[in-house]
Give the backbone structure.
Amino acid sequence: MNEIAATLFRAGLLTAEQREHWKRAWLSTVDHKRIGILYMVTALVFFALGGIEAIFIRLQLAVPKNTLLHPDTYNMLFTMHGTTMIFLVAMPALFGLANYVVPLQIGARDMAFPRLNAFGFWLVPFGGILLHFSFLAGGAPAVGWFAYAPLSETPYSSQLGVDYWALALLVLGIGSVGASINFIVTVLTQRAPNMTLRRLPLFSWMIFINSFLVILALPVLNAGLVMLLIDRRLDTHFFLPPGGGSAIMWQHIFWAFGHPEVYIVAIPAFGILSEIIPVFSRKPIFGYEFVAGSTVAIALLSLLVWAHHMFTVGLGHTVDLFFVASSLLIAIPTGVKVLNWSATMVGGRLRLDTPMLFGVAALIQFLLAGLTGVSHAVAALDWQTKNSYYLVAHFHFVFVGLIVFAILGALHFGFLK
Amino acid sequence: MNLQLGAILRVFEPDSPQTRAIFDLGLVSSVILALIFAIVAGIIVYALMRFRWREGEPDPQQLAGNKTVELVWTAIPCAIVLALFILTARTMGLSDPAPAIEPDLIVIGHQWWWEARYVKTGAVVANEIHIPVGRALSIRLDSTDVLHEFWVPELARKITAVPGHPNHIWIEADKAGTYLGVCSEFCGTEHAWMRFLVIAEPPEQFDAWEQAQLQPSARLVEGPAAKGLALFQKMSCVNCHAINGTAANARVGPDLTHFASRRQFGAGIAENTPDNLRRWLADPHCVKPGVNMPNFNFTDEQLTLLVAYLETLK
């Protein structure tokens, strides 16, 4: 019995008889609240790790021609930073939040499949350890979080880093799909009587929609990862041009997952904003149906925009223009969301408590992220801005400005009581 | 070792019709997007100032939405998006016209340097591309290993060099000058040092340069340079490099026929001086870690001879 157990007991997260063996009770838990907290603690650990990696990246870039890090070490650090922050921070943090909140919001006793839930969570630390074990196995991957072929193939990355990277993401992908199936079944079958889908709180709505997106997008990545592993271990040439493979195919597969992925981590943040802003404006959300409906539109469109990551690859103007159109279209439902949140604030009685401060900051930073995103949909501009710091800034506004701020807002919010 | 940049990346100073079209599109869309930002952020800031909660005030009117307003603010973005789409399609045509049937120049990305072949004359150069002012050249872009990206922001759109998938762009310069180009697709250890120069010069000067590049290296009979040549041919240098006029004709590393005429070597990592060259030959990995050229552990005397020889390759 110690401080942690006492705190957990007071918070109602430990029963009286579990106080003596609280560690075992937590490690073997299938309770959605505890799993939610485990997800978030895991995300916090990796957030610190990814943050340290970012500090080294910035130190190396602090002065020109810096010799602090060997080029390969630098390349490993930015690869691990990106992979960690997306797969081991953003996704588990949001899954953890959803695990905790969704059953409470819809009046369910627990998730529909508690054991699948625990399994999904434990794959996160397992995947994280697999990924980081590469440091001990001859070197972390040094190919960028996008691992473009053929650089990620054996002739150019002969060490085991890429193999560990692919295996880790496979494991994490399986966990995410399991968790998402669980969310969908929970929302469909475990709602309190009289809670129709049209009355579902917006956060749960968005987790529900988001889970479909996970189920559609992650398996595409997993298929690609298996192809990459077969290439590397069994000498096939899916992505190796000299053997008849296609380097561009990897990009199609990766971004067919990768762009929905951006929305997979953004939509839960939209859900958080949709909860925080009305509460602290003392007014119902403006246009519930439009906020919920625009999420469906975003989810559908996000499956059709992947090649806007490939405007410089040379797919031809016709293909480029299709993806210009689809990427510009996605700005419409996104804009509708931002306007609905703003309209909720107009005419309200705004209380600027901590969650609302994070909420408003997230809203304005997301506005910036969204508008610079529109400039990336304009393909001809991409022909100058692609792969530059303008792009890096754009997606960090999404990941930090929107997602991290929204999560911090949610943690300060009554959500976790 | 002093770094000679020769130029900096001037993204906001387009110097060709193609890049000017992109720049103009950038201006127009920046204005549109900045206006949207100002309006929406303005509404949020206004709400923050005007509608603050104060003790004792009643709850606000519980307004749950308005269909007309929703339709209006869905329609306006639709119009903006349509306008941006048309502008984009137009600029794509202007900044990236259809390729010529036969390219003027074939540019090949290697880990970590650029090779350029002038198709009509057969001149082969490395990391330094000359072009005539005012004439658009059609470039075919290839890669021998991984993905690279050819980017000279003032002169042309950027485009990826994909192995097994040749791409085409046009490059053109309105005025004479030296332009810095970089690889902008992460391509491995020395991605940061995969730079090149594009030198735009008046057509007569360009023609003279191209003719000079076609000349074989001078015959050497005696002296340290001749000994250096003998050493070059005896050692494994010839397995990777080509020097027109000698037995060396391998195409793995950069062509060295006119090595001494270039301003820098190692894809931008060092100014091309005898001292820097000596340091490079003594241990390439010390200058450019990860480079594919091995350390041959030359003796001091061998270094002197090799440098003497390479400096004759004007």
In short: DSSP finds 14 helices and no strands in chain A. Chain A has a mean pLDDT of 93. Chain A touches chain B through 75 residues (CB under 8 Å).
